[in-house]
Amino acid sequence: MEIQRMELVGLEVSDLEAAMQEFGSILGVDFIRIDFDENSDIEYLPADGDANALAARTSMAMDTTGYLELIQSYPPTTHERVRNVHFKVDDIESSIEEMRAKGYRLVANLRIGQMREAVFGARELRGLRMCLVQYDGPSMVEAMLSTS
Question: What integer pLDDT is reported at residue 10 of this predicted model?
Answer without folding.
Answer: 95
